[in-house]
Design brief:
The longest helix is centred in the C-terminal third of the chain and has 18 residues. It is globular, with a radius of gyration of 21 Å. It is α/β, with parallel strands linked by helices. Strands 1-9-8-5-4-2-3-12 form an eight-stranded mixed β-sheet, sandwiched between helices. It has a three-stranded antiparallel β-sheet with strand order 7-6-10, with no helix packed on it. Strands 11-13 form a two-stranded antiparallel sheet. Helix 3 packs parallel to helix 4, helix 3 packs across helix 7 and helix 10 packs parallel to helix 15. It has 15 helices and 13 strands. The protein has two domains: 235 residues, Aspartate Aminotransferase, domain 2; 128 residues, Alpha-Beta Complex (Aspartate Aminotransferase, domain 1). The two termini are 23 Å apart.
Amino acid sequence: MISFNIPPFIGKECESVEKAVLSHKISGDGEFSHLCSNWIENRTGTPKALLTTSCSDALEMAALLCDIQEGDEVIMPSYTFVSTANAFVLRGAKIVFVDIRPDTMNIDENLIEEAITDRTRVIVPVHYAGVSCEMNRINALAKTYDLRVVEDAAQGVLSTYEGKALGSLGDFGCYSFHETKNYSMGEGGAILIKDAEMIQRAEIVREKGTNRSLFWRGQVDKYTWVDIGSSFLPSELNAAYLYPQLEHAEMINQNRLASWNLYAELLYDLAANGRIEPPFIPENCEHNAHMFYIKTADLGERTKLIQFLRENGVESVFHYVPLHSSPAGLRFGRFHGEDRFTTSESERLLRLPMYYNLTEADIETVTRQIIQFYKQV
C-alpha cells in the first residue's frame, strides 16, 4: 500500500534529540526551541515567533491576544479544520462562515465585507494547501473596519504571497508542525507576532499567564501570575526533532515540489480533457507543495475513485467536512450568504499521497491507477 503520508525524517533528528536529553534541559525554551524560533523569524521577517504545543494552541493564543469576548464575531471559511473555529469559540465568539473560492478553496475575499457587523473583531484567512488567500484585500478590509487578522497558515510554511511569507502578513500567524505537515515535531506549532508591542504579553500567555520569561532574562526579580494564559510551551525534545528539518527546509521543499510537479505532468491529459481538476496556483503566490489534490465530477465519483485506489494499493483521502454543517458549527456559528461552493467543492476534492521522499515510481503508480479508473467511467 502506498501511504497517504509518512512524517518527514532526514536522519539527523535522533542526534539532536539525544543532545537535548544529555543537556538535561527537556522541558522547553532551551537551545533547540530558540534555534527553531530564530529560524522562523529570520525566514519570515517576523519580529517574534514562539513555538507552541500545536497549531491549535497557536490559534488559541491568538484568540487570547485579540481579547475575544463573549458575543464577538469572527469571520472565517467553513472549509477548514475544527481548530480554526474552536480557538475563538472557547473565548465565547460566534463564528461567521463565508463561502470559498472554487479555484483555491480559500475564503472568498470579495464576500467578507458583507459579513462584517459591529460585533466583528477578527478575520481568519486559512491558506489552504499552502496557497495564500488574497491578503492585500483582507488586510485592507481589516484596516478599514479596525479588525485583527489571524492567519491560519498551518499548511503554509515556506509559502509566500507577493514574495512575503505566509504567517507574517496578518497581526498573528499560526503554523503547524504536526506529523502530516512539511516539517514536523510530531505535535507542535508556532505563533508569529507582527506587533512588537504584543510580544511580552504573548510570552506571558504562553507561560500560563506568568512573567516567567521576564524572570529568566533577569528583567524581574521573581515571577508571578499576571494575566490569563495556559501551558502552550512544547517539550525541548519536540524542538530538537524539528530543528534539523528546518536547517534543511529548502531541500525538503524542493523534493516536495518535484513530486508535486510530477503529479501535475502525469495527470495533465486527464485535466486537459476535463476529467479531473488539478490545483490552481495564482500568479502572485508561491506554494510549498503541501498537498496535491484533484477534483472529481462529484461526490459519487470521488467515492468510487477512493475505493478503486484502495483496492489497487493506493491510500487517498478526502479532506474537511464543512464546519457550518456540523453539529458544533450549527451551534456556535452561522453561514453568511449563500453556500455556492463550500459544500459542493469539498465533496469533489481528493488528496493524493504526498510526503518528503515520495518516490517517482510511487507517483507513477498512483497516477497510472487514476488514469485506469477514468478509462472505465
